[in-house]
Write a structure and sequence with these properties.
7 helices, globular, 261 residues, alpha+beta, Jelly Rolls, six-stranded antiparallel beta sheet, single chain, four-stranded antiparallel beta sheet
Length: 261
């Protein structure tokens, strides 16, 4: 974890002309996330987004050659992240008493990773580090840099800061788990705020289903006390809504938005 944070910082502090060699194409690479218009307000952050698992889906043209340990470190970190995600997903399915306790593990087999860099901002009251959203996959495993608070989660209408814990990871529930659990697990709305004096790095690993995977509530979680809350859909259909709506993407799948949220 410490090595991952170190090489992430070494990359983001490279000269811009070296980083733009890996510029974003179709949502992968270095730059800004979710840019759809020259008129939109951009987040106060840059990121490097990579597909890391399964290995055959990696696009190595986006994997930086500097620092020299970058690729080796990301590979080693990915192996450990996948092991942890499998353990978490198995326990979550077991907690729901799903007929197949390895169901989540089989569904969320793809892992992508983003390294976010938030530089100091002279007017943090005028910008947002990363706009509020829910994650569009199964779970997210977040590694925060120590000493700088930036992540916030929404609870009961308020934004609550998530303090970095040395040696700790933050696990976020994503929209796909909310759907499959028929709302028993809730995806968490979150954002990142800028800091006037300090920069900050965070590293998120997203455990996702395949693009054409069929997603829907597990039948054993539908009953009179917990009626069907979501329709079935392909993840590709969801992604079209996600890139347009962000935190509201899951709404399109709700059968009765007022009662399922």
């Amino acid at each position: 974890m410490e090595q991952m944070k170190r090489i992430a910082r070494e990359f983001v502090l490279l000269p811009l002309q070296e980083k733009v060699e890996y510029a974003v194409q179709e949502h992968e690479g270095y730059g800004q996330a979710f840019v759809f218009s020259e008129d939109q307000q951009l987040d106060w952050s840059d990121l490097l987004y990579l597909t890391i698992m399964p290995a055959e889906k990696r696009k190595m043209k986006f994997w930086p050659a500097k620092p020299v340990e970058f690729r080796k470190t990301v590979e080693e970190y990915a192996i450990q992240v996948q092991r942890l995600s499998n353990q978490m997903l198995y326990l979550m399915a077991e907690n729901l008493s799903l007929n197949a306790p390895d169901r989540f593990v089989h569904i969320f087999g793809e892992i992508s990773q983003s390294m976010h860099y938030y530089p100091p901002c002279p007017r943090p009251d005028l910008v947002i580090g990363l706009s509020s959203h829910t994650d569009g996959g199964g779970i997210t495993i977040l590694l925060q840099e120590d000493g700088v608070v930036g992540l916030q989660v929404r609870k009961d209408g308020d934004w609550i800061p998530v303090q970095p814990i040395p040696g700790g990871l933050v696990i976020n529930i994503g929209d796909m788990v909310e759907v499959i659990s028929n709302g028993k697990y809730k995806s968490i709305e979150h954002r990142a705020v800028a800091n006037k004096e300090k920069d900050r790095i965070s590293i998120a690993a997203f455990c996702n289903p395949e693009k054409e995977a069929e997603i829907g509530p597990a039948c054993e979680l539908i009953n009179e006390s917990n009626p069907l809350n979501y329709r079935n859909f392909k993840r590709s259909e969801y992604l079209e809504s996600y890139f347009l709506e962000g935190k509201k993407a899951i709404e399109f799948a709700k059968i009765n938005p007022s009662s399922a949220g």
